[in-house]
Structures are given as structure tokens and as C-alpha cells.
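Hi there,

I know you've been waiting on this one. I reran it after we fixed the sequence typo, so this is the corrected version. Both the input and the resulting structure follow.
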Amino acid sequence: MAKIHSNKRVSGRDKHRDKKLKEAQSILRTLAFEPKQCNETAGYTLLALLDMKPRKRWQEANNPLRGITPIIEFISKEYDIRYAPNTRETIRDEAVKFFVEAGMLLRNPDNPNRPTNSGKTVYQVEEHAYELFRCFNSPSWEATLNRYLQSRESIRDELLRTRNLTRIPVRLPTGKSVTISPGGQNPLIKAIIEEFCPRFVQGGTVVYIGDAENKFLHYEIDYLRRLGIIIPSSAKMPDVVIHDAKRKWLVLVEAVASAGPVDGKRRKELKELFSGFKTGLVFVTAFKTREAMRSFLTEISWESEVWTAESPDHLIHFDGERFLGPYPDSLN
């Protein structure tokens, strides 16, 4: 992670900063986080989530809703540590993600339906953990810590149960069900699988579903390899991939809520990503309504299809000499 110390630590104020960081790291170690989740970045992240300034007592901790950028800004302002803008993902993946998984941190408690990858995503310390942190360096610390550790698993299970209640069930063509996170384009992804597939790719096999919380939520890796397709872990996948074995097509669908139709650039990217498939790619952009499609009309690639959930029986063909079929340039 690119981190910049803006000043040397020589003042009394710096000593308070260092002391507070060490205390935060000590708390994380006490809660049995792995060494990587107890490093300086994790410690600073915890301090930011509690609005803990260097001279504050732990009993004065607050519990704000705070996103990744405000976390970075707090650390810079209060602890004189500046993180480069491209470190947002590192803070999310090496600290925040594990805090959420441990049940110590809530994601979007103000709006559970907000997509995880939304720019408005915020985090807040779970109430039992918040009570614990406010007891640090006080006579009640040990007793509160013991109570928290004893109830930690049940707290995590309850949070998981609550999160699962908001997830969207999706029934695959095979009859198997999976669940996807709420919000964003995911209700549209459900419609693609349950409404588009039976109408236009009958008997098709859904080999991939992307999700904001889990990029490879449903991923038939061995199936794709048998088709000659190997996907790098860093690849920008379409939202849904369906194999039509009868017609020997691979249907690549982008679900558009606010951005991301199959434009010329994206069509080229998908051709390259799935170049191992030799018998024809079909490109589809899905919208909830035709009204939602209007602002993207000038971007949608020729030789692709558009489907809207509000009119599930119809397709819109862009230069559509074929009815939902591959074009010569996608036949390898």
C-alpha cells in the first residue's frame, strides 16, 4: 500500500498518535485477528471508524457511518498519514472486509439494499463491539471483553442471518437456487436468469453469475474450461454467462442499472476474454425498462442485442440481421 508520512514524529502530539495506534493494534490482537489485520493500516482504520482522535479517551469514542474515502481523510487529518487514492481497495480488502466478516463492523446499516460496490457504501462498528471499545483502559475492560468473546459467535451468526434475509433468491434453469446480494443491478440479474433464459436460451446452462459481494458467486470453472475458456481472476466478467449447447452459443449478458452496456469497447473486451470459445458469442445488454435504456442508446454496440425486463418477450436488435445469434467477427 502506498503510504506517505508527511512529517517526522517528534512532537508531543506525535506521541499521542503513536500511543493511540498501538492501543488500536493491541485491541485487534486481543480479538484474535491475524497479524495482517493488526497492522498499522488496520489500526488506523479502526481509529477512523471510532472517530478516535489522538488525545481522545476511548470512553469518548463515537460510532459514525463512514465510507472508505472518509476513513482515508480522517487518518490524514488526525494522524498525519496520507494514503494514495489507489489504496482504497487495500483498506477495504485488508481491514474493512475482515472486520465485517468477524461481525465487528456493519456494512450499510442505514440501507441494507445498497450495493456493496456503491460509491455511497458506509460502515459502522457493531453495537456490542462499540460498547467493548469504549471500555478500553477502564476498570470494566476485562469483564466486558470476556462477555464479548463469549457472545461473539452468536453476534456474528445473528448478523449473518439478518444479511441472508435481505438476499435475493434466484432459481437457475436446472432448478437449483442461489442467492445474490440486494440492490444495484442484482434484481435485474434475477430477471435475466428467470425471465430471459426460458424465453431466448431454452435449455441453456448458466455458467457464471457475478455479484457485488462475490465476483464469482456462481462460477462453473470446469464447465468453462471444457469449452476452451480460462478466465483470469482479475478479469472484468459480464454479469451473466449462459451456454446454449444446442446452438453452440455462449451468451454474454451485461445488466445495466447505472452504467456498463455492451458498447464497442466492451464488446471487444468480451471477445478477447472469451476467445477460447470457437463457435459463436452473443452479446446482450439488459435493462429494467425501455426508459432506462434511453440514455444509453448512443453507446450500445452494433451487432448486439438489448432485452428489457418490462417487456420480457421481446428483443431489440442493433443492426440485427440475425435473431439472437453470433456475427461473423465473433466466430473464431
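Quick highlight: Residues 3-166 form a domain with the Arc Repressor Mutant, subunit A fold (CATH 1.10.10.1820).

Best,
R. S.
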